[in-house]
Amino acid sequence: MPKFDRYIGIDYSGAATASTSLKGLRIYAAELMQTPVEILPPPGPRKFWTRHGVAEWLAAQLRSGGATLVGIDHAFSFPLRYFEAHRIPGGWPEFLDDFQRHWPTDVEQVRVEDIRRGLHGDGASRGGDARWRRLTEQRCRAKSVFHFDVQGSVAKSTHAGLPWLRYLKRELGASVHFWPFDGWKPPRGRSVIAEVYPSLSSKSSPSEGRTPDQHDAFSATRWLQMTDINDFLDMYFQPMLNREDRPIAELEGWILGGA
């Protein structure tokens, strides 16, 4: 029996500012037996979604009721080496607070590049090495969250998106389960927000005229939906991790569907 009523896949973008209309920022959604469809921003001067707009829309959707499984295409945390190098205390919520203080990419008119160049925030004191990778990135052969300026990198989208995860956690509280930071097994009936990596599933279905960003959001939504319908979610919610790796993954996060 499916655990969720709705599925949302978000292909993220770290370009420009939080209030910039971004062609690469796409949302697809589906109910239980529905083909995923693109969700467009509300009518107005902006043709495409903004990161601020996506966060507000998602918060409203998750408040409206019904168990929803959300997949967002950027990293939710950083490698263990980052926590050790910067002596970040506490767990994931404390990491989000510390990150936002140094990388305030949710502030209007602040770009990731502005912080990298020292024009805002204090990114220099919270940097990382492109050779540092999370366990889940190693298993999925994904790039490091610090690997900027290369094709296929999620560094910018991660640095732009983390403050909005903090916003969602503050807005929604315990009504939403952030996997796996709130536990590997989400309570039944509760909405879940998880990290996804569309490259794991995007080649399994034809693009049918969708742009690469649209197809990534579509593929993420479709994978979440079909994995739930086919009753494989429990397996993916409990990845095979040994005793040493599990607490590291609980801090670094995990890609849902990753090995």
Structural class: alpha/beta
Q: Based on DSSP secondary structure assignment, what is the total number of beta strands?
A: 6
Please give the largest β-sheet.
6 strands, mixed
Strand order of the largest sheet: 3-2-1-4-6-5
Helicity level, as a percent range?
A: 25-40%
What is the number of helical segments per DSSP (H or I, 4+ residues)?
9
| Rounded Rg | 17 Å
Could you tell me how far the N terminus lies from the C terminus, measured between alpha carbons in angstroms? 24 Å
Describe the protein's architecture and organization.
The protein has a six-stranded mixed β-sheet. The chain is globular. β2 (26-31) and β3 (37-38) form a beta hairpin. It is built from nine helices and six strands; from the N terminus they run βββαβαααααββααα. The chain has one domain. The chain has helices at 51-63, 80-86, 92-102, 112-116, 135-140, 155-172, 212-229, 233-237, 245-252; strands at residues 6-11, 26-31, 37-38, 68-72, 176-178, 191-195. The longest helix has 18 residues, at 155-172. With 259 residues, the chain is an alpha/beta fold.
Secondary structure layout plus pairing:
Blueprint lengths: L5 E6 L14 E6 L5 E2 L12 H13 L4 E5 L7 H7 L5 H11 L9 H5 L18 H6 L14 H18 L3 E3 L12 E5 L16 H18 L3 H5 L7 H8 L7
Parallel strand pairs: 1-4, 4-6, 5-6
Antiparallel strand pairs: 1-2, 2-3
Helix pairs in contact: 1-6, 3-6
